[in-house]
Specification:
heterotrimer, A alpha/beta (about 160), B alpha/beta (about 350), C alpha/beta (about 675), A: about 160 residues, alpha/beta, Rossmann fold, 4-stranded parallel sheet, globular, C: about 675 residues, FAD/NAD(P)-binding domain, Alpha-Beta Plaits, 5 domains, 5-stranded parallel sheet, about 25% helix
Chain lengths: ~160, ~350, ~675
């Protein structure tokens, strides 16, 4: 692999709409960015904010949650529950220094392979511009280790 | 010496407020039983011990060590390693040691910004030369050292393995008494490995006497914005009560006096992130967006839901009040400008 | 480290996967992962030889978990679950990684596709280790069936099931069954009389003792799940006692109030305030339209009651709410025609002699408002020239992108009928393409070509009465581009017929919500699979038939009605159906009774026990969405087959290659 940064996105796809949209995109040979790694859930309402944080901590640069359009949820209004959680999570992530583009919620009907593919392309492009997140390495990594005694760190008495 | 037969007890205070020690003394008469059952091997708060005393003990010499306080600096970490080595049973005692607690909230900013707030920007601080603590300082007699202030607050289990966790800010005296009782009388403890002792295994709601109904939240209120009905679940009234996502054990002290639970007993078994679970739970029961969805304007719906969420001020500080350092992300991230300001 | 023994199988799918993903490399790499006992790649895993490979390994190597990386689980998850089961392994100890639709087919970047495949395989391996053996849940099927919609698709479905000996409730919103087909005059391409072929079937419905016909009724709510639906139906008051009414029609005759019939006669004819949509209506009982009835509006009249020989008129009648217990549901709710007022430049509603195709159907019908005479809006003048405009509201991004599929053929039929009734009239067809694709359609087209119709290829820009040239006065002028000669032209005619397309019912989304279905962007109901499962839906136990699924002609609607019936009959004859065990469960020990979950279940599957202060999921009602699982702040609710542990492990696996692992806790392996 070359060294150019390629974002990694964890995609939570609902079984009934967005996963089928992804299936359809593939069946229609719609080529889109291979950066999204898909995880199937029965409904976008199954996606716990914990899953999003877990993915970000384990090294994902972004998380995409995709559900059915409002009003078209297989489970009536699971996607609305996902939307409510997303709106609150988004506000919390802002405080944690995570850009809005890194966690996105999109709607894609089973017939909308192109919508899903476009969303992945768009998000990949946005994350390329933002650069890597790589939480363990850049945020947690190394910090809080015992400081070594070096002259540079020695201050004069004041 | 007959006392030699007694097991050894230690209690240490790292980055914490001292409330844990007070709560321990709050067990009342039972403290005498503790004294009778144990030899105190190290307890700087109540008796004069030096670190070198502890260093001289053989490994595993201390039978029970209650470690309270978070790991904020290098001294805290050194002591954690030392006490781990010298103790058979190491208990992360109280919320700071278990999950970072209030000191952990500084993980929402940078170490630099924290120091600045304390030593420079605080209006009551008199520091005309604008001196910040330095780990090493040259004086005529040589170099003197103070502990290194870490970038991130950690829980005890993030630096050494702990056998048990006793949650709470502070752990309630009756829970401490019960645990000490069990240890003294030889009731077997659960298998070690960050196992929870001195707390329940259900949420605070179990102990809360308020009437709980089906929840539909129209908007959120900060405590000063509303006078809650004393009989009904606070969350239902829009007050962000953490009881639903917090381990029981305190007896629902706060909700009983009309205050929201702030979550000090930490998350329940099987929950990796207390804050994230609060997001999931309370966002789910926001009323906006229920009702007919056919032909709905998606952007408008999102905006309306967002408006309700905006009434919940400071979600990270609210949901992670005690748990920030032990949450999945552990701290906020700072890039460029934000690193300087310490505001994510 | 877990003790599970995992077998990993990477499918080439010919070159479908292997063309983009380095399958051998993925397979060799997977062999080195923790817990993996064997890793193989094979040309076609779904072939019997591929499946035997898995079976043999399960038996000989003692595999306790199986991962197959191949196509979509929607394609072959069942196949490989069965494979595992044959070898004695619980079918839920299997996980599928979709490296075809979601990977090899979605990119041509071989390096990236291989890396993605590894992530998906690694995720599947880590996930499957946490799988638990599950059993399918048997559900008893109630043999009664609900058919919604009494058009030709619904009638066919109802008769098929009833004739097989099972009970059917047929719910129809209008006073009579028959649907759009009852309004049509002749049917293409055979030109049989629509009523003549439909009414016998309608009578069969009325006489079949296995069919309970609920006309003038609407479904208000559906609860339950496959095999056990409870359906709430509102049977609207007819104000006619069906037990006493003989259908003699004297009431209709005596009713003094005449109103325009917007429904059956498409606004072209009249009906009374007490009416039957058409003489052959089934059931035969009339209804009172309270909005136009003099008694209901002004409190006086009661002419119908006075003349009724059996005292069947009952002004006091109330709507009835019925609760039906059924095992299966067939939706055959049909379509609406496009309202051409949405294209103002065609002048419909403004220019008198612009008609819709449905109006023309009624006009040429011998039983229709003009007795079959083709006349202008004045009711007397015979047109000498008629323009038929195709694709009105269809194949047009401004309105409906889809082709309505029937308009070409019925427009050709109109030409034929015009030539037959008005041999001297000039007939023009403005078309984009003639789509004559089904059996005998092309032959019919040729026949019409020979009958002298002028075919003009091009979309009509405007229909106007503003005369500019000599000979245009008093006429409708069709402004169009003839795309075959590339010229703008004007054509004055006496009559214009707009061949309006088919749309989803205006309330299809509300109906979809009642039944828990999905809709396409244009409102038509979504089938389970567009090719292989066209009448089934994503909701178990609910089938769709006819034009509610998309534009179609009568033969297809009939075929779908019969197909849906066959689906239902196969479920009824099985007696029980096995359901996916993806269900939520509340651990009562961990439940604090906070009641966060109580209002989240769209199926009301969560009950709260006030005495014990705990919530419980009723397994039979749970559909497994996981909304409550995610919401439970105490992790007291688990979602079988989608547990936190399983998903968390899957996330870790997906990110196996991300950066050097840095320990963030002293205790964990992290």
């Amino acid at each position: 692999m070359d060294n150019a940064y390629e974002p990694v996105i964890i995609g939570f796809l609902c079984n009934w709409c967005s996963y089928r949209a992804a299936d359809l995109a593939g069946t229609s040979r719609l080529h889109y960015a291979p950066n999204m790694r898909p995880i199937r859930v029965m409904c976008s309402a199954r996606v716990e904010p914990q899953f999003v944080l877990k993915a970000l901590r384990e090294g994902a640069d972004g998380v995409l949650i995709a559900g059915c359009h409002p009003g078209e949820c297989h489970y009536v209004d699971g996607n609305i529950k996902a939307l409510r959680r997303y709106e609150l999570l988004k506000r919390m992530l802002r405080q944690l220094g995570i850009e809005e583009e890194r966690v996105q919620l999109v709607w894609a009907a089973a017939s909308e392979g192109n919508v899903l593919a476009d969303a992945v392309n768009r998000m990949t492009e946005q994350l390329r511009r933002l650069g890597p997140l790589r939480w363990r390495e850049t945020v947690l990594g190394g910090d809080g280790q015992m400081a070594e005694h070096t002259d540079e760190k020695v201050a004069e008495e004041v | 010496m007959a006392a030699k037969e007694k097991p050894k007890f230690a209690m240490y205070w790292a980055a914490s407020c001292g409330g844990c020690e007070i709560s321990t003394l709050n067990i009342g008469d039972k403290i005498l039983a503790v004294d009778e059952a144990f030899d105190i091997a190290f307890w700087p708060c109540v008796a004069d011990f030096k670190v070198k005393d502890v260093e001289k003990y053989p490994d595993g010499y201390i039978d029970l060590c209650l470690f309270n306080g978070a790991i904020r600096n290098s001294e805290n970490e050194e002591m954690a390693h030392l006490l781990r080595k010298k103790s058979k049973i190491l208990v992360a005692f109280g919320s700071c040691a278990s999950e970072g607690c209030i000191p952990g909230l500084s993980n929402l900013t940078t170490a630099e910004a924290t120091l600045r707030a304390v030593y420079l920007d605080n209006p009551s601080t008199d520091n005309p030369k604008r001196v910040l603590p330095q780990p090493f300082t040259k004086v005529p007699e040589g170099t003197i050292q103070i502990p290194v202030f870490y970038e991130r607050v950690k829980s005890l289990d993030q630096v050494v393995p702990v056998d048990y966790v006793m949650p709470g800010c502070p752990p309630e005296a009756h829970q401490i008494a019960a645990v000490m009782d069990a240890v003294i009388t030889g009731v077997p403890l659960p298998p070690p490995g960050r196992s929870i002792i001195g707390a329940g295994n259900v949420a605070v709601c179990e102990e809360c006497p308020r009437q709980k109904n089906v929840k539909r939240i129209k908007r959120f209120y900060r405590p000063h914005e509303i006078t809650p009905d004393p009989e009904i679940c606070l969350l239902e009234q829009g007050i962000v009560c953490m009881g639903i996502a917090t381990r029981a054990g305190c007896g629902a002290l706060c909700p009983r006096v009309n205050m929201r639970c702030e979550g000090c007993y930490g998350p329940l078994d099987g929950v990796e992130d207390q804050g994230a679970n609060m997001v999931a739970a309370i966002a789910s029961v926001v009323e906006e967006g229920s009702g007919p969805l056919a032909g709905i304007d998606e952007a408008e719906l999102q905006r309306r839901i967002g408006e309700v969420m905006d009434t919940l001020v400071d979600p990270a500080g609210t949901f992670y009040r005690f748990n920030m350092a032990h949450s999945l992300l552990m701290r906020a991230r700072f890039t460029g400008d934000s690193a300087e300001k310490g505001v994510a | 480290m877990s003790k599970e023994r995992v077998g990993v199988y990477i499918c080439h799918c010919g070159s479908n996967i292997a063309g983009t993903v380095a399958v051998e490399e993925v397979s060799q790499w997977a062999a080195g992962l923790p817990n993996v006992v064997v890793s193989r790649d094979y040309k076609f895993m779904c072939s019997s030889l591929g499946q035997e490979l898995v079976e043999k390994d399960i038996k000989e190597l003692g595999l306790t978990r199986v991962v197959v990386a191949a196509c979509s689980p929607h394609m072959h998850e069942r196949t490989f679950r069965a494979t595992c089961e044959r070898a004695g392994l619980n079918p839920f100890l299997f996980e599928m990684a979709n490296i075809r639709e979601l990977d090899s087919w979605a990119t041509d970047d071989r390096v990236a596709a291989t890396q993605k495949a590894k992530a998906m395989v690694s995720a599947a391996i880590r996930r499957v280790i946490h799988h638990q053996p599950l059993q399918l849940l048997p559900v008893t099927i109630n043999p009664n069936t609900l058919v919604v919609g009494g058009g030709v698709a619904g009638i066919t479905a109802a008769l098929e099931i009833a004739n097989a000996g099972y009970h059917v409730y047929l719910v129809e919103r209008e006073p009579s069954i028959g649907g759009h087909m009852a309004q049509l005059d002749k049917t293409f391409p055979t030109l049989d009389c629509s009523a003549c072929i439909l009414t016998p079937k309608m009578v069969d419905v009325a006489q079949n003792k296995n069919i309970t016909l609920l006309s003038w009724s609407e479904v208000e709510a559906v609860e339950g799940y496959v095999g056990n639906f409870t359906v709430t139906v509102r049977k609207k008051a007819r104000y006619v006692n069906e037990e006493k009414c003989t259908g003699c029609g004297i009431c209709i005759e005596k009713c003094p109030k005449k109103v325009v019939d917007e429904v059956f006669e498409a606004g072209l004819g009249y009906r009374k305030a007490i009416y039957r949509p058409f003489p052959q209506a089934v059931p035969k009982y009339p209804v009172i339209d309270t909005a136009s009835c003099i008694f209901f509006q002004r409190g006086k009249c009661k002419a119908c009651q006075m003349f009724c020989p059996t005292e069947a008129i009952d002004f006091e009648q109330q709507d009835q709410i019925l609760k039906l217990e059924v095992g299966n549901i067939i939706l055959a709710t049909g379509y609406d025609t496009f309202d051409p007022r949405r294209i103002p430049q065609y002048g419909y509603g403004r220019l008198a002699n612009v008609f819709t195709s449905l109006e023309f159907e009624r006009m040429v019908n011998a039983a229709g408002p003009t007795g079959g005479r083709i006349v202008l809006r004045d009711g007397v003048t015979t047109p000498k020239s008629v323009a038929i405009i195709h694709c009105v509201g269809s194949r047009d991004k401004n309105y409906n992108e889809h082709c309505s599929r029937v308009c070409c053929m019925y427009s050709l039929k109109f030409s034929h009928l015009l030539h037959e009734r008005l041999p001297d009239a000039q007939v023009y067809e403005f078309y984009i393409d003639i789509r004559a694709t089904a059996k005998r359609y092309e032959e019919f087209y040729h026949r019409i070509l020979e009958e002298g119709t002028r075919f003009i290829r091009g979309r009509v820009a405007e229909v106007t009465d503003a005369a500019r040239l000599p000979g245009e006065e008093g006429k409708l002028i069709v402004q169009y581009e003839d795309t075959l000669i590339g010229k703008q032209r004007r054509l004055p005619v006496d009559m214009v017929i707009l061949s309006v397309g088919m749309e989803a019912r205006r309330d299809s989304r509300e109906v979809a919500q009642i039944f828990g279905l999905g809709c396409e962007y244009n409102g038509f109901f979504i089938e389970r699979h567009p090719k292989l499962d066209p009448v089934n839906t994503m909701t178990e136990g609910i089938q769709i038939a006819g034009a509610c699924q998309g534009p179609m002609a009568i033969p297809e609607a009939v075929a779908q009605g019969a197909a849906a019936a066959a689906r239902v009959l196969s479920l009824i004859s099985q007696g029980t159906v096995m359901m996916e065990p993806v269900r939520a469960h509340i651990n009562a020990e961990k439940c604090s009774g906070c009641r966060i979950c109580n209002d989240l279940c769209p199926y009301n599957a969560i009950v709260f026990h006030e005495d014990r202060k705990v919530s419980e999921v009723i397994t039979a009602l749970c559909q497994g969405c996981g909304a409550c699982v995610a919401a439970c702040p105490s992790a007291a609710i688990t979602g079988a087959h989608f547990t936190d542990e399983q998903v968390m492990a899957q996330i870790e696996g997906m990110l196996w290659d991300m950066q050097p692992r840095i320990a963030v806790t002293a205790t964990g392996a992290e």
